[in-house]
Amino acid sequence: MASRNFFDPPAGHEPPRRDPRQPEALSVSQLTARIERALKEGLPATVLVRGEVSNFKQHGGSGHLYFTLKDPGSCIDCVMFRSDAVNLRFTPQDGMELLATGRIAVYAQRGRYQLYVARLEAIGQGALEVAFRQLCAKLQAEGLFDPARKRPLPPYPRRVALLTSADTAAFQDMLKVLRRFAWVRLLLWHVPVQGEGAAQRIAQALVDLGRGHHQLGGVDLILLARGGGSLEDLWAFNEEVVARAIAGCPIPIITGIGHEIDVSVADLVADYHAHTPTEAAQVAMARWRTAREDLEALGIRLRREVRTLLGEARSRLSQLQRHEVFRRPTDRINAARQQLDDRQRALAAAMQRRLTVARQRLMGLGAVLAQRHPRHQLALMRLRLGDLSRRLAQELRRLHRRLGERLAAIASHLNAVGPQQVLERGYSITTLQRTGRVLRSAHEARAGDRLLTRLAEGTLHSVVEDQRQLRLFE
């Protein structure tokens, strides 16, 4: 018998034929692929889209950004992968107008098209300005701008570290000021102050100075400076890594970055914000510039204080000289001698009292010891043993008398109710000689059994011949 596929039509039924005029049916995946191919062929590889951000979210695990760009008439879903998002200098927020660069593609799993963003720019205000405001708000909320957190500057720094580029005018401007103070030791820590990687180099230098300033001879102060420039040129000092390195450095820091109108995040976190590198050096040496005048003023004040102290000392010395002790010093000695004699007598009396108390206590302990001597204890034990022996003998006699009386009463009772009294009344007890078992019925004896019959006086021996003989007495 020929087998047939379950899905084959039954015999005699042909499958319906497709009308050649109708289009061929597509699967969902085929349709999605055609739509994506049409988008790729009809749109450029990169598009520039302008719109307002809404529904912005950042995936906690992957770090990808998901948001929507919209205008009054339409909207489009957007995704920015983490590899592109790490290059953003600001964080997009709902309501912000952005210019997005990317490509259009279909997300097949959900059957919709979306914009895959590679770069974002803020419209109306620069991305760097947005990033600057966002970072300032974040650090201010954490308290990094709080004046109470900032460290006081050393008034007379002896070792100063210049954290800047050796090729900049800022370095030369600071040297013009610092060279006037030859006794101040300067340490140049060369770092790039702009460009790719400058922020990381500056932050690492601050960390190294903070860790090793004791080995470097004890750096007292750090000057972080560079000359003026555009916002892009100064951006290394607006990076979060630099701000946190400044806040975490144990050495006080003065910043002199850019011109007077320039304010960076580093300036806001630093312990002192100077508007230029020259001003930063001047602030660091401010107390040294007036050190001569301060020293002279301190000398005058010291001489005045010394004269005052000498005058007070002379006055006290005069008073001491007029004191009774210095006019008749032997009086104090004699009083001390008399006081010593009194103390000696009081000490002897106290020692005598202590000895008397000790003797009395020793005598009491001797009496107690004599009472607890083994001979005394043995005598007491003998007396107690004799007393216990007499009491034991008395108790034994009383116990013997009570037991004798009780035994006599029991014997009298047994005699009254014992088997001998029963036998005296004319009864007898018959037992099997072989086993000694008492017979209570004639059926218990067999022909030939030897019997013992106990009477009140004597015992009879008998042999059972006929089991029925005993029934004559019934």
Description:
With 474 residues, this protein is of the alpha/beta class. Among the domains are: 97 residues, Nucleic acid-binding proteins (OB fold (Dihydrolipoamide Acetyltransferase, E2P)), CATH 2.40.50; 158 residues, 3-Layer(aba) Sandwich (Rossmann fold), CATH 3.40.50.2300; 50 residues, no CATH class. Helix content is 45%, strand content 18%. It has 14 helices and 13 strands. The strands form three sheets. The protein has a five-stranded mixed barrel. A five-stranded parallel β-sheet has the order 7-6-8-9-10, sandwiched between helices. Strands 11-12-13 form a three-stranded antiparallel β-sheet, with no helix packed on it. β8, α6 and β9 form a beta-alpha-beta unit. The longest helix is centred in the last third of the chain and has 44 residues. It is flat and about 155 Å long.
What characteristics describe this protein?
alpha/beta; 45% helix; 5-stranded mixed beta barrel; 474 residues; Rossmann fold; disordered N terminus; 5-stranded parallel β-sheet; OB fold (Dihydrolipoamide Acetyltransferase, E2P)
Layout of helices and strands, plus pairs?
Elements: H1 28-42, E1 47-58, E2 65-70, E3 75-80, H2 82-85, E4 97-107, E5 112-122, H3 127-142, E6 159-164, H4 169-178, E7 185-190, H5 198-212, E8 221-226, H6 240-248, E9 253-257, H7 265-269, E10 272-274, H8 277-284, H9 286-289, H10 291-321, H11 324-327, H12 329-371, H13 374-417, H14 419-424, E11 429-432, E12 450-454, E13 459-463
Helix pairs in contact: 4-8, 5-6
Most strands sheet = 5 strands, mixed, barrel
Helix and strand succession? HEEEHEEHEHEHEHEHEHHHHHHHEEE
| Rg | 62 Å
Mean model confidence by pLDDT: 81
